[in-house]
Amino acid sequence: MDFKNLFNFKKATDPIKAAVPKIKKDSFGNFVLLKRALIGVMGLATYARFNVLNKLRVEGLDHLRELPETNVLFVSNHQTYYADVMALYHIFCSVKWQYKDRLNNPLYFLTPRDKTYYVAAEETIKDSGWLPKLFAYAGAVTVKRSWRAKGQDTQRGVDMEAPEKIRKALSSGWVVNFPQGTTKPYAPVRKGVANLIKEYNPIVVPVVIDGFRRAFDKKGLKLKKLGTTLNIKFKQPIYFDDSYTLEEIHGIITKLIEQEPERSPAFDRMGQVYETKDETKKQAEKIEDLEVSLE
């Protein structure tokens, strides 16, 4: 008798494991069924915030319908920690259900899109309470900011793991990135986004949001003002080929998400606008060349 094989528990249980279907996980080891349930519950819980207590208006949904399933990077300005992201989840799930123009029926959360990720500061997730930590399971790609921590400016080493995390997310779905890294309006776009685009060559979808700062608190968890119009605009998807430099990509992204310093009411128009006039014109010409149809 082969006592070695008789007491080999692993070999004995192999047929059982083969008979039981594997539980699907995403690229970060999260259970997909749990993610879907979480997105669905949180989506239904927040539906009234966007479509009853306030009014969500979406422009450019047609740009999302023909996008590939992977390697798509959404770059957006940022107004709250979480309300912006949750609104985008609503939109992405509605696109999956082929809704045409508005989010008038939350049934799209019965089978939500689970291959969506968003880049978030690790310390923001940790310091925001249990609810954001729970929502992080739905697709947060956490990174350590090198320039800011706990609301204070700082200088520390670059998070070397961040690019690989974002690459992994891009390889399996859509990724939302807020390249300013802060909710302050007209804050400079961090140059890291240009490096990501140059390195991984995603299709880039510029997004401009407005109204969230008026409707919600900074975290996006508490309502401040009811009846606010929340605007989300998706612009033409673009692709940066190898001919574009990091500086050009950075400048174009800044312009497309409408966060140029000269847009700020506090900007000295008699000074810097004159100095950057030629550069702004060049960027506008580049944007015209970049816009592509994905039909």
Could you walk me through the main structural features you see in this protein, from its secondary elements to its overall organization?
The protein has helices at residues 3-6, 9-19, 32-51, 62-65, 83-96, 122-126, 130-136, 162-172, 192-200, 212-215, 246-256, 272-290; strands at residues 55-59, 72-76, 116-121, 140-143, 148-149, 152-153, 174-177, 203-210, 229-234. It is α/β, with parallel strands linked by helices and 295 residues long. The strands form two sheets. It has a seven-stranded mixed sheet with strand order 1-9-8-2-7-3-4, sandwiched between helices. It has a two-stranded antiparallel ribbon with strand order 5-6. Helix 11 (246-256) crosses helix 12 (272-290).
How do you describe this structure in short?
This protein is α/β, with parallel strands linked by helices and 295 residues long. The protein contains twelve helices and nine strands.
Which term fits the overall shape? Answer: globular
Mean pLDDT score, rounded?
A: 82
Q: Provide the spatial order of strands within the biggest beta sheet.
A: 1-9-8-2-7-3-4
Provide the CATH architecture.
Answer: 3-Layer(aba) Sandwich
Strand runs, count: 9
- Sheet with the most strands, sense and barrel status: 7 strands, mixed
Query: For this structure, what is the CATH class?
Result: Alpha Beta
Strand residue percentage: 5-15%
Radius of gyration: 22 Å
Distance between the termini: 66 Å
How many distinct domains?
1
